[in-house]
Structure formats: C-alpha cells, structure tokens
Amino acid sequence: MVTSSPQKKEEKDRFLKLTQQAIQAYREKLLDISNRNNLINLNFNPRSNRVLRIIDELPEAIFKKLSENDKLTLISLPASKNNPKDEATIEFKKTFEEERLVNENYLNELKELNPDDEEIDESSDEFQKILRKLKDEIRKKLGLKKIPTQHSMSIQDYAKAHNIVPEYDNPKVKSEIDERHDDDNLQTLFYPDDLERKARAILKHAKSFLDEKGTNTLHLSFGCLKWLEANNTPRYSPLLLMQVKIVETKTPSGPVYTIESTEGELFINLSLEKKLINDFKIQLPKLEENENIESYFKKIELQVLKTKPDWELKRFITLAIHTYSKMSMYAELDPKKWNTLGNQAAIQTLFTGSDNPDHDSEIYDVDEAVNKSKVPILIEETDSSQFSVILDAMNGENLAVQGPPGTGKSTTITNIIASYLFKQKKVLFIAEKKTALDVVYKKLKDKDLDKFVFRLSSTAEKKTSIIDEIKDRLTIKAPKNIPDSYTDQKEYNEQINKIRSYGKILDTEYFAIKKTGYQILSSLAKYKFYLENYPKKLQDGFVLPDIHSLNKDDFIRNLGQISEVSTIISNIKKKFKDIGTHPWFGLIEDKNNPYEIKELKSTIIKLDSESKNIHEKLKIFFNSIKVKFNIDFIEAKKVINIFLKSPNNTSVDIKKLIVNFDEIKKIELLQNFLIDLTRYDDLLKVKNKLSKIVNFNKTFKIPKLKEHLKNIKKSIFLLSYLFNANYRQSKKFFIDITKDIPYTKNSSIEIIEDLLNYLKLEKDNEQEIKQLKNNYLPLSKLIGDNFKSEKTDLNIIKDINNFFIFSASENQILINKNIKNIDEIKKVSSDIEVLLNSFETLYSAFSPKINSKHFFNFDNENIVFENIFKKIKGIDLRDDESLSEYIELNYYNKNLNKDVQNLYDIFVQEQLDFKFLDYAYKFLIYNSLAKKLFEAKRELSSYLSSSLENEVSKLRSLDKKIFSNQNDQLIQNLSFMEITPGTSKGKASDLTELSLIKRETDKKRAHIPFRQLMQRAGNALRDMKPCYMLSPASLSQVVNAEPEIFDVLIIDEASQMKIEDAIGSILRAKQVIIVGDPMQLPPSDFFNANSELDTEDGIVDDDESILDLALSRFQSRMLRWHYRSRHESLINFSNFHFYNKDLIIPPSANDKFAIKNNYIENAIYTPSSKTTKRGIVTGKTGVNILEANAISDAVVDFMKNSIKKASNKSCLVVTMNTSQKELIEEEIRFKSSKIPEVEEYLNLWLYSMEPFAVKNLESVQGDERDYIFVSTLFGPNKDGITMKRFGPIAKPKGHRRLNVLFTRAKEGLELFTSLTPSSIGDGGEKGRQIFKSYLEYAQTQRIESGITTSKGTDSDFEDWVKGELENLGYEVMPQVGVSGFFIDLGIKHKDYKYGYLAGIECDGAAYHSSVSARDNDITRQNVLEGLGWNIYRIWSTNWFENPKAELKKLDHYLKALIKNT
To answer: Which residues pair with residue 257 across a beta bridge?
Structure first.
C-alpha cells in the first residue's frame, strides 16, 4: 500500500507493529516444553495405551530395515504352556477389560505400588502378581475352577529362559549381529494376550488421530535422554523419531501387528531441543543428512553428557503416540523467514481491527444477472444463504461464515474453490479435522477435479503415492467439444425471468382493495368450487363493473355485514330449521320500537280473530251453496259479488225453469235456441209483412225475380212500355204477384227487392229452421211444455235468458243451482261483504309491515284467511327474543351495501341456502377482480395455456445442463494452466519447478525428501494443483513460509482451531474465509493430551478460536438451510437452544420422532481416581458397564439387521470420555467376534466416508452418520447417589459439546442413559442444564413447555383445499415444519403407513417471498424429494379456471401414490 500521508504511514506502521506483537505472543503458545508433553516427559505407566517398549533389538538395524520399507512384526514372549485355556475365551477377556476399569482391589493395589503416579514396570513380579489376583477374582466371578496364584518365575526370568534379554536399554552393535537381531521382528516384554491388547490399543489411538486430524502421531523413537530437573526428578525424552504406522493382520491364530515406515525422514526431538536451550542453554547436536543412529548417539555422549555427567543416554526403542506436532508451526513463525511478518491486510484486520467492515449482510438474489455474473461457476447446488457467501468471497471480502450443523459448509466451500479455480486462482484449504478435508475433497473428486488438488490427507501418506499423483496430473487430458453454454444460459435466464414475472404478478397488490394476484386467483378458485349454490346470475358470469373502486375497508365492512346477518341467521337456525321457518319470516319491520311492537301484536291478534271468523263463515257459506272454492279474499269477493248481482223479483215460474239450467251447455243450448228462434221470428215478421202485398201462393225463383227487377229498373216509362217487351212482361209479373197494389216503378222495385231479401234469408236460414225443429228437442226437458220447436214463445225464452246475467258461466251455474234460496244467499253474501271490507281495512294497515308472500305465503292481492290464523298460531307473541332477533335481521338487511343487498335479495328470491351468502359475495368480488386483473395484466393469460410445472421442469433441466457444461469448462481451464518451467539445466540439485518435478516423477526410487521438493518446485506444484488441502501442521511442514502465495485461504471447522494454529496459513494468503460454528466445539487440548492420566480427558476450553476472532473482525454471514437431518426432531432442539430458531429446517415425510430414549435401570457409574503426592484424591473419568453393555448390544443388533435387510445405513457411537469409549469398543469387539454379519458390516463401511467408530465427545465434530448411538455415561454411583459432576459438558463451553453431539445423526439417534432429568437437578453450568433439557426432550418429545410448532394455513385457499381433501378421507396437516421451512399442506392417509403420503406446495405468499426462483423451484424441491417427500404443486392460474377438475386430478395423484406404495 503506497501513501503520501506521513500520518497514514505512521498509522500503518503502528498496525504492523501491533500485528507482529500479536503474532509473537501467539507463537509462544505453540511451544509446549512442559512435562505434560510426552516428547519431554515420556511416561511408561503400565495403564498407558499409547506407549509400547521394545527390548533386545539394535536401534541401527531397526532403523535401516524401516528405511528400506521392510515390515517389522511385533512379537511377544513365547506363549506359556501353562496359560489356562479358559482365560482365552471371549467371556473372560470381556470381563477382564471391564474389571481393569472398575475393580477396587486391583485399582487400590496399583495405587500402593505406584503412590507417586510414576513409572511402573509392567514386567515386574509385583505388577504380575496384582494382575494375577485380578484374574483370579474374575475366575471366581465367572464360576471357573480355581488355579494356583504363585508364579513359577517372573516375566524377566521367563524371557531369559527363552534367550531373550529383558532389558529396555537395548544392546549396542557388535562386530557380528546375532540372528535374532537380523530378523523382521520387534521383540516386546509381554505375554501374547497382553501384547495383543497393547498393540490393538495403540492401533486404535493412532488411527483415531489419523482419522480426526490427518496427522500421524505414531512414532518409533530411538534413544532416550534421561535428564534431571533442578530438583533431581528424572525425565525421559526421546532423541530421534521416525513416523511409522501399525497394521493389523488377522490370522487363524490371532491378529498380527506389523510396523511400517511412512517414508519420512528421521528427525530430532525439536521439543527437547527447545527445552534444553531454554532451561540449560544446551544445544542438541544437529542430525546430518543420511547420518546413522549410532553416530548420533556418540554425538550425544560427547556433546551433551560430558557437560551433564549425571544424565544418561538410554538405548530405548519405543513405539509411542506423540501428539505434540506444533514445533514446525512454531518454527515457521520465525520473523526471519518472512520479508515483513504481518504485513498482510487480513492478518492486520484480525489483530487490530484496522479494516473492520459492517457485519450485517443481506441475502443476495441468486436470480439477478449482476450477481450471477460475479460467480463464474457452481458445481454443487446452492441455496441463497450459501450463494451470498460465495458472492462475497468472489468480491474479495474477508469473511467469517457461521455454519450451524448440516447447513452445507462443505458445499459452500467446494463452490468457492471451484469459482476461484475457474479464474485460475490459487486456493489454500485447511482444517484440523481430516473429515472436513475429506468431505470437500470427495465433492471435488466427484466432479473430476481431484487431479488439480494437492491433498495431503495425512502425514502418514507415503512420498511415493504423492509422486504418483503429481505424475497423473502431468498426463491429464482436457475435455473436448464442450458445448457453448451461451444459448443455454440465455434460455435459463429467460425461464428465470418468466417464473419471476409470474411470481411478481401474483405477489403484487392490485386495485383499491389491495389484494395480491395470488389472493385474487386462489380465492376465486376456492369460491368458484361452490358455484352451483350461487344465484344463476353469478353462474352466468355477472361481474361488478366498478369493482376497481371497492377498497379494502368497504370489502371488510361488507363482509362484516354479511357476517352479522349470517350470525343472526345462524342463531335463528339453532331454534328453527332455516330462516323460512322462523315464525316472523316475512316481517319487514326493522325498528324495535316497543310501542310499535305492541301495536303490531295487537293487530296480529285482530287479524287472527277476524281471519278465523271470516274463514269459518265462508266455509259454511260455500258448503251451503254446495261448491268448493279456495277460502281466500279474492274468491270470497267474487262469489259474494256473483250473488249480490243476481236479478231480483224473478217470477216463480221462471225460477222453476232456471233451476234446471245447472250446466253451462244447457244455458248455451237455450241461448243458441234463442238466437235461432229470434232469426226465425224475424223471418216470419218479414214474410207476414210481404204477405199483405205479395201473393205467396205463387212460385218465386230468385233468378227470374232478379231479371224482372232489372227490367223495371231500366225502364223508361212510356218508351219501355211501347217498345220493350221484357218490361211489359215484368210489369205484368208484378201485377200478378201482388195484391191490388198499384204499379209504380219505385214501389215495384221496393217490393221485388224485399221479396228477394226474404227469399235469400229464407234460403240462408233453411238449416236453422230445420234445427229448430230437430236440434232443440232437449229443451223440452228444461222448459217443459213451453218448448214448441219453432213455434215456442220467444218471450218466455227471453225471460229465462234475461236471468242469466253471467251468461253461460260457472258463476251463472252457481246462481242457477242456488236459485231456490237466492234471497237468503244474497242476504248472507251481504253480511260477509261487510266482514270482508272490515278485514280489508285492518289488513291494509298491517300489510306494509310484511312481505305477505313470506309471512302468510300469499300475495297481498289474494288473502288466504286460513294462512293467516295458521301463521299466527305458530307465533309465540310472548317470545320477544325471537321477534327482536328477526327485527334486528331486518335492520341489517335494510342497511346492507347495495351489492350485498342485491345478492341477499336474490338468495331470498331463489330460496338459496344462506350459508353460501358469504361465499357467493366473495366469488362475485374475486371473479370481478380477476376479470380486471386479466385486463390489467394481459401477459397473465400466457400462464393459462401451459402449466407452470412444465416451466419449472424446464428450468431444472437447464440448470443441470449448465452445471455439467461449466464443470467441463473448469477442467479445461485448469488443464491449460501454464506451469512455471523453472531451472532445467545444471546439476540435479540446481533443478527447480517443472524441470525438477519431471525428473522426480521419472525416477523409480531414491526421491528427494518431499519437503525439499515442495521448497524447490512450489510454484510449479501450485500451478499444477492450484488447490492445496491439508492441516495447519502439515502446511507448516511442507509449504514454504512465503507471504500471499495463495489467492484465498479457507479454514473449516474454525471453532476448534486456535488462533496460533491459523496464523501461518493466514500469512500465506491474500484473502481469508473462515468457516465454522461458534456454537460447536471450542479449541481443545484433547488430541494433545495424555488423556489417560489427566482429569476430564485433559480438556481445556478457555482458548479463543480463530472463528471467534474473525466473527468480531470480518464481515460475517450465516448459512441457514439445514440439510443433514432427515427428521426435524434431530435438529429442533439445537435450533431452539443454540440458533435462536434461525435455521431453515425442511420437514421430514416421516412423522415418527427420530430420537429413542433408552433408560438403563440399576446402572452404576464407577469413577476412577488418582492420588497426588500430597495425598489429594482427584476425580478421573470412569465407566458405566451396564450402559456399555446395553449400547453395544444395540449396535451389534443394528449391524446384523443392516446386513440382513440390506438397509445400508451407517452408524457411530459417541460417549463422554475415553474410558467409556474404550470399554464400548471392547464390548462390541467381544460380542461381535463370532457374528459374520458384523464383520461384513464393518468391512462394508471401512473405506467409506462414514466408517463405523466409537468416539469420544471431543472428536465427533464434523462427523455424520445415519444413526448415532449415545452413551451418556454418568449416573448413580454404587450408593445410588448421582454426583453433579458431568465431565467435559460441565466446562464453561460444555453446552457447545452437547450441541455437536445432538446434531450428528441424519436419520435417528438412540440415547442410552442412566440418568433422569430430575437426577441432574436445577441450576449449575449451562451445559448441565442443556443436558437436562435434552433428556426431557428425548422423553417427552417436546422442546420445552409453552413452545409449539403448530401453525395454521397461510391462506383461505389453502384452508379450503385442506377441507376438501379431508372430505375425501385424507388427513391434512397445515404448514408442516418447525423453522423457516414449511410445506403448505402435509397429506396422510389411513392406508399409507409411512408418515406423510405427499406434500402440497401452493404458489402463495411464502412461495413468492423467497429470495430467488432457484431457492423455490430447484433447491427446495431437491431437498424435499431427498427427504422422501412426494411434492405436488398447486398453481393458482390452473385452479381458478376449474377448481373441481384440479381437485379431482390431485385426488387421483394421491390415490396413485397409495396404490403404488
């Protein structure tokens, strides 16, 4: 950084100085030269399972053989023929291992033998006697026959008897090497069983360290310096060390253990070197290249022992676990190795806060083009929180990333690495746990990127295997014909935009009502489902034209009105069947005025009385006139009017005749007769008139008359007579036919015309005249002798007909039938008319208060009297409540919103069920809104033509295709990276970089030391393999101390990494990303401590981690999506207690609680103890044998079943301390020794990422298995008292250990405990209380009282779908989930026995509120399907069109799942 400001330079220099001071302070913490370090104070305690001593071997010979890659076999003393066979049984060995830990006599005798807790010689006669006594006790316990306890000889004498020198101080080289010193064996001073136990324990410890840390802690040391403290206390420190590994080979006679070299170099004990300089100012001699051991021993004698004559060189050969490997890390922070130590920005920010950014970070939108462009590649699917971390990383930010359990830390790291590699950047990835490195490496390997990764998986890895990997990288071929991803990416972006556009439309509020598109369409779908229950007008598609002006308040107010009306109707229906059966139904009074109510009741009483009276009188009246009329007002008026209009003063004779006319046809016969008779009478009158003038004795023919008439009309008086014969003839004709009538032209014309008319009329009535004679004969029965055919007296007929005032009608028949009593009937009719008029007045005053059709079931025009008093009979006038209730209903009805009122009225008119009034109104509103929405958003129509599901499927397909193409592009980019050529000429020692690499890869053997290769070819190696993955310790040993040789550093599981352990890696990088979880394990000395000799497994957790520091200095982010647990019950507890419920937890399709609590009754926790020199007894971790037995039985059964059922599920056992861990291991080993399925299971998982193991709580972080078995260890002692000491979980950060423990399982956790929550008690450390809460959780399956995870549906639409599915017989759970990740509807069915049949996801608010379409449509879907969910998507654009068809389709889908499961 260049600056011209002196002030800024001064500040920069100050920051640099502060940083350097901090580095030096932390550097000192890497140096442990205390007696706790077994490189300083090698303890040969017999109880230690980390040390095995070799006797009667030559150090130089052993070293030479190992250097030549020979395998050396650990051998015991020859087996004694007197060893009891029954002590070789599994049962005896199992009991022996248990009793060694808890037998009080044995432990007390060991204390007496070793009061100062110093070295015990296991080969000593005293120790062997104690051991024999223990075995005798076991024999008695197992009911075995007693054997003598007196040894025939000590183990030393036994060794001598077999020509073995029983001395740990090994012999010097002689001129001739004995045969036994030239073989491939390593002699020990153990009997066979003891050696097997010791070797097996060392193998387990070495493997544990290797698996956990990637660090080989197993060393074979040559020589020991016995030196004296200032107080003359002797100490033993190894001089020369060589990394080795121990291998177990199973043979018919038992396991054989061999020691092999890891091709590492011999090196001096750096801890001892530093110790001697610091305390004694003595410098150890330098170990020259290729110097042999004997030569170095001589240097010690000459250069060290001469100055310290009371010190000794011991020729010990010791196989031991040495966990202190930080000397190289201490050495690399030497300021002399760096140009300017601490000049990097990241390290200064950490130690000074000089560039401390704002820690709050929003989640980035994955779909935004500008964001996607900054992340060149993703090779693993990411959620939005992971993507935001990756984007910040690519922006060059120094980051602190909090990754709670199972949130995809390794996925995020993998994608960051891939993105940096795509840009041809150099990446350094470190973690103290080998598992963390392995997981990321496997992800990269799965994408064929492993050849570009330098993976130093452990310091036990052989040099030749690393050379082979480098050789493979040189021969790699880049992929060819990689498709151009531009088109796919463009199409992908279009799909994203299409789906986002859809989401935006549905998530936007519209119109004055402020409803989102989703609310409009989904609500319409719901209410459309019940369309047949609505008025026809709505079914025909009626919409409100001014819907856009309806605001939210008015809508809510209208719904409130409907609700109030519905409530009243609901209350009414509690008493009455429906509103129509309410006694006051039809009353339209809307005021509860007590005076008006009183008047109303009075009127009703009168109406009741008068209606009954009239009804009764009308009934009698109608009976009297022998007719059946409806007794109603109109009919009554009509009948009465009929009689009142009947003629008065009719003669008796006529009345006698009228009574016979009791049918309409009879009246019609008379009336027709009258017509015909009248015509005949008229004809006779004409004839009679003419007969006075015309002689009818003459014969007349009409044509001739017409001719005569014509002649006369044309005549001219004189001329015609003189000259017209026709005229003269016509005149003569006239004179002949007339009777003395003087001829005149006019009179003749008139008379002839009248004659013609008569003749024509006669002709026309010829038929009627015949009828008079023939057709009316029935009248003779009606009018008797008065009927004389055509000669009947017309006046009589007229008199009769005049009585028929209503002509031929039923009314007239009514009168005719009652003619005898007509006068009396008319009087009664008059009386009833008075009653009717009075009633009409009364009813007219009442009718405005009612809807007569509803109240009395008649129209006002036609009053039915019986309806009135029957209606009133059903009214309890004393029931003021019902009346008041109905008047209140009327009040609301009259004050309804216009649209609501119209709808209400239609419901009343069409007699629809009022329970659908609310639905109908909502349908009207949402249907109207939907029409407006489609008008406003024309593009919405495009989502109706094709299912959104197809669009999402297309997006997923493109996503996979792009992933694949980008991965190939990445490999191609890396393959073409330019490799630093280096020096290619000169001596072999002058070669560097690629030239040196090629020379080494061409060699078969005699490779230069690996560290030297890394130093001379570091640039080329980083070009070839731009991603380095290793532990901090390995980094310090093999990678040069150069600043910023990597573009980015990523640290995983950083909560467990001490600040001092991370400094060296931070100095090597330009950018730093620190990943971990502050709620998980803190830094611990567990792997550096001799845990068997220290209280609580040597755990110290007061140190600050590099994550703690980074979270306070760097920009921070948190990963939130939880992927590990296949059931939410496995993570709920931690989410609640540790993560403030911030995790997004996908729900499981299996609703079975995944934690099983096994309470072990009568179990006893047996703590061990040790006594210090001051006589103080201190607690030491102990064991719980019954708990160990129970959990080992369960694990063995699990393995057997896993093989038998081919379930292929991994498992892990976790307990609280090393002693219990080792006991469980032995229990499982003994129980499974003769069960082939267990061995098959162990081999199946041995080389996987999830091998079976029994682990201490301190070593389980980063692990995951399908099933976790937990032994909580602690419980009541032999006196039944539970001590409130809970080992590591009682430490200040003990609760974090429990968090790790609770979150390792993917599918299930089995708890084996001898504790109840109440036995733990209240108060105390946080870890203790978390422990108690978890036991309660495991028992009750509830996190804490008052905490609930139940939720209702997110919308009315979802609630409706839920209800309809329940109607179809499904069990529906809304909002399935517990934290941030909810499935809208979880479906169960009685015929489906595996939890949830399916999950239904709606495109509602939760869907569209997601940060990205990718989160919704790819990540979310994949996660749920991975958890066993069958996901069915509901798209509102499909459902609003035809909800019934969509529901039917969903039902078919669910039934198919049941059928095919």
So the answer is: 248
Residue 245, CA distances (Å) to 206, 210, 664, 668, 1091 in order: 8, 10, 131, 135, 21
Please state, in angstroms and as integers, the Cα–Cα distance from residue 1239 to each residue in 1204, 1223, 1234, 1250, 1270, following that order. 13, 19, 9, 16, 22
Q: Say how many C-beta atoms besides its own lie within 10 A of residue 401's C-beta.
A: 33
What phi-psi label fits residue 1242: left (phi over 0), alpha (psi between -120 and 50 degrees) or beta?
alpha
Percentage of the chain modeled with pLDDT above 70: 92
Closest by CA position to 743, among listed 758, 729, 732: 732
Whether the predicted pLDDT of 1109 surpasses 90: yes
| Contact present, 635 and 761 (Cβ < 8 Å) | no
pTM beyond 0.70: the answer is yes
3-state class percentages of the chain: helix first, strand second, coil last, to nearest 5: 55, 10, 35
Mean pLDDT across 174-201 = 85
pLDDT digits (tens, 9 = 90+) for 319-354: 999 876 687 888 899 998 888 888 888 999 999 885
pLDDT tens per residue across span 1394-1440: 788 899 988 866 565 565 666 666 777 788 888 888 888 888 877 87
| Tokens of residue 1035, six digits | 């980094």
Instruction: Identify the pLDDT of residue 1345.
Output: 40
Q: Tell me if 391 sits within 8 A of 375, measured CB to CB.
A: yes
CB 1122 within 8 A of CB 407: yes
Tokens encoding 603? 């009127």
Q: State the pairing for strand pair 1265-1271/399-402.
A: unpaired
Nearest to 1169 by CA among 1094, 1098, 1100, 1222: 1094
Hunting for tokens 């379930």 — which residue is that? 1207
> CA–CA separation, 836 vs 833, rounded Å?
5
By DSSP bridging, strand 509-510 and strand 312-321 are unpaired
Q: Is the dihedral of CA 329, 331, 333, 339 positive or negative?
A: negative
Strands 1046-1051 and 1069-1076: parallel
Say how far apart CA 211 and CA 716 lie, in whole Å: 159
Residue 1281's contacts (CB-CB under 8 Å, 6 or more residues apart) are none
Helix (H, G, I), strand (E, B) or coil at 551: coil
Beta partners for 1305? 1265
Is 885:638 a contact under the CB 8 Å cutoff?
Answer: no
Q: What distances in angstroms separate CA 951 from CA 326, 497, 500, 944, 956, one per listed residue?
A: 56, 11, 11, 12, 9
DSSP state of 516: E
In the beta sheet, which residues pair with residue 788? 790
**What's the confidence (pLDDT) of residue 1092?**
38
593 compared with 515, residue with greater pLDDT: 515
**Residue with structure tokens 């009791």?**
662
How far apart are the C-alpha atoms of 1204 and 412, rounded to whole Å? 37
- What single letter denotes the amino acid at residue 267? F
Tell me which amino acid residue 527 is: Y
On average, the pLDDT of the chain sits at 85
pLDDT given for residue 892 in this prediction: 78
Measured between alpha carbons, how far is residue 1013 from residues 216, 986, 995, 998, 1208 in Å? 20, 17, 11, 11, 43
CB burial class (10 A; 0-12, 13-18, 19+) of residue 527? buried
* Under 8 Å between Cβ of 137 and 156: no
DSSP H/E element including 101? helix 90-102
For residue 2, what pLDDT band results from cuts at 50, 70 and 90?
very low
Residue type for position 1450: L
Could you write out the DSSP letters of every residue in 1079-1138? TSPPP-SGGGS-GGGSGGGG----SPBHHHHHHHHSEEEE--B--S-SSTHHHHHHHHHH
Q: Supply angle C-alpha 834, 839, 841, rounded to 5.
A: 100
